[in-house]
């Protein structure tokens, strides 16, 4: 659980083993965030611009000379412009060019066009029964008029971040090692009281970096903690500092190593880290059926458990969010996939069938019982103890998928 403000985090956080085991076959807290001061002291302050500004002062004599040259150049240009205008005037003839003159009638027409009322906005192309944003039409912070376009854009952007099973390219890593790392990242997110979007983005950054870079197991925790740092800078208003992540790693790495890894990850991803995550889609899609907070939390629990599964890494974030919501709705007897959900998500029940069965199997038979961070987290009453809800019956799920 979160630790008091101004104090070091609890040492109960399990550290990743120095040497990862080699296996052959294998809403949130309502507490106030702590001040992310460094456990070893705050970084030195400095002026933001003085250190990087080295502009020299301009001498008066040089400035005068430059001004004189500019005046001479401007006079020369004006002469050339007059000559060009005369030449254009001589070349102008009927059929080639017409002089545009704004007469009295033109002025009146212009005034009339300026005094006309602006054209009304075109009606939105969303059926009234499917418009889930109309209740927020007067709230400028909800951007109701752009909400669907925003999520359609995020859904289309997913295609730029599709991953495949990259573990075959990692000779020194395996699936279990990744699971241990993600389980540890869940605990870091909970103890630092970070947003859930930060956790999802950090896991995405880790997967994308591992998919294009061969690493040794000794660097795996460094990659995970650095991904959390980058994601915190992207998602948090008050992100933890570097020293916080060094402390949470039990000082296994140096500050220079973490900064160097940050550069490597950003360069490997070409600084494009705005990766769509399923957590955002879940909030949007749950609104389509007016799901209560307990149902939404259950879907988030299933979604967060999926972060541990290497098999689900290639799944699109929007499709994964839909399958988690469908499983939660079926578990709570709130109906199946509705036309409103199909309209806003773009997925039919047949599109979600295989993934929904995988998620149900994941809940019933976890791939690793030792990874308990997510289940322990969602067993708390803050999250409605959704981890203790029995898994939906397979026959009940099959009926919902028909």
Textual characterization of the structure:
This protein is mostly helical. Among the domains are: 134-140 and 277-401, Cyclin-like (Cyclin A, domain 1, Orthogonal Bundle), CATH 1.10.472; 164-268, Cyclin-like (Cyclin A, domain 1, Orthogonal Bundle), CATH 1.10.472. Helices cover 50% and strands 0% of the residues. It has helices at residues 60-91, 104-115, 147-157, 175-191, 196-212, 220-235, 242-248, 255-268, 278-288, 293-305, 317-331, 339-345, 349-364, 373-377, 394-401. α4 runs antiparallel to α5 and α10 (293-305) packs across α11. It is globular. The two termini are 42 Å apart.
Write a concise keyword list for the protein shown above.
cyclin; 50% helix; mainly alpha; globular; disordered N terminus; single chain
